[in-house]
Amino acid sequence: MSNDAITTHLKETRRFEPPEAFAAGARVPSREAYEALYRESLDDPDGFWRREASDLVFRTPWTQALEWTPPHAKWFLGATLNASESCLDRHLGTARRNKAAILWEGEHGATRTLTYAELHREVCRLANGLASLGVVAGDRVAIYMGMVPEVVVAMLACARLGAVHTVVFGGFAADALRDRIQDSQAKVVITQDGAWRRGSALGLKQTVDQALDQPEAKSVTHAIVYRHLGEAVCPVHMKRDRDVWWHELVDGQPLRREATVVDAEHPLFILYTSGSTGKPKGVLHTTAGYLVGAHVTTKYVFDLREEDVYWCTADVGWVTGHSYLVYGPLSNGATCLMYEGAPNFPDWGRYWRLIEKHGVTIFYTAPTAIRSFIRQGDEWPAKSDLSSLRLLGTVGEPINPEAWTWYHRVIGGGRCPIVDTWWQTETGSIMMTTLPGASASKPGATGLPMFGVVPAVVHSDGTQVGADEGGLLVILKPWPSMLRTVWGDDDRYKQQYWSDVPGAYFTGDGARCDAEGYHWVVGRVDDVLNVAGHRLGTAEIESALVSHPAVAEAAAVGRPDDLKGQALVVFVSTKPGYVPGPELAIALGEHVGREIGKFARPDTIRFADALPKTRSGKIMRRFLKDIAAGRETTGDTSTIEDLGVLAKLRADDG
Ligand code: WTA
Question: Which atom of ligand 1 has the smallest separation from the CA of 528?
């Protein structure tokens, strides 16, 4: 993305001050109060984090806050803990014992409530069950489930044993699951028979079977299957000696299990995410730093109160589900709503009815969802009473000011502050936003840094750009919940995050910072796309395409899209003997769906005799992006090997 594009993007001047009534009761009631806390977090990190983490359970306190040997950080050295004790045990001796931890609603309207005491019991039973299968601290466990309370139980049961969970989003296909199992060398997979999605049953166990039947997945000794839909709706085949039913495994297990105490830097989870090159990378988060980051940001960004009903709509398969559905809210003793299904099932009023029915006070969702609601019209939210809401949040992609103001007016009734939270799988917790009682929001700006976070917008040589000038978004200091490495590939960690800009963590995003210190993130500047809030690596899509027999070469690029932020456009040249056309396009779309997952299917497939390349043979994505977006090709074409290729692609454009 050119600097100019970054600078001119989002010239927005409106600002919304925190409503007085909100600020009066807020944890951080003014910009000055925020500044003081922020400064303290940098001047005295040890004192700051010690106080802010004091309600978490540490078995031994830390002796040193940070050890920084760039690019490797260790936080809270000497501390020991178990993350599940902060999320569960610490509430049991308090009034929260019988408070709802999870309010769950299935797509067809079934409801369940799990109190903290009940959640603790289920976690202990499953931890005992996992231990009986031989799972010990440090082992990896893959979790491939939908949005049922048991996915939370499964994550916390792993944490209780010191086992490392790797949750794989239920929309991923068998091959993508297999790759993640192989890379993490998972010993056990936890899954469910199936899940409801938009009225139909999605067979998850069936996909696990396809993954485990391949030799690459041989590290797995057992699959645990939670029965959610039942035999009549979703029959499954249980493989002898490998598959066990969840209910049989936990039957008769003791209701308690002593938590395994681990070191602060013990791995808590691996979460795979797309990068600009090669296969997805396993982002590794460790116990104390991650937990502290998720805990403190949840408390402050959502200004959490004991009586809140908090709803984060993210799927637990993504990092938002990890930090703001599980570790953050549960370590704060919050009541979380969890909804199994699609936002438009059976109609576009579903979310709003859920808010009314459960009295949701805090609602956290993605801009893509907001934009699809806008398209359906104001009459859907108007049918429900949304007056319980007091705070709104967004995450995952830049929000356009129109969507922001609609969200503010129609969903928030003009009275709820909006926190636009910028962060990444790698950062573990929210890095920038405007604290709701402290700082004014500007539609489209994510805002100011969270405690301990030092962002900067720089040129590629690391020098800072001026106010309002576009550049690369970097983070200058280590923060507690930062990723520690890429699982099994530390070189890639160094290369991917610490080599582009000298001495800084490079986020992959472009941004500008205005004179007031607000950051305006415009999106990725690397070869990662953000399609409907899903991160897709162009390299992954391309390698999926070229694995199809018809494809000679492929290039994937993003095109601006009103609804999804970016749409996925692929350019494909075919091998001799294959006929480009609609039939092949459908087959290729299905192929990508099978290789990665349906959510990664291209929006547009364009056939080309050849792709524009430099003389050294590199595909020139810049031109393809212009063509995909229907823009005039800009910039220097002198390095292009065959200008005819470009002319041909344009002509095909019509
Ligand atoms: C983008 C999701 C603008 C950004 C938590 C980042 C955002 C990527 C915002 C990370 C925001 C996330 N405004 N862009 N508020 N939040 N992004 O790893 O490009 O799935 O690098 O983590 O999403 O996506 P990831």
Answer: 19
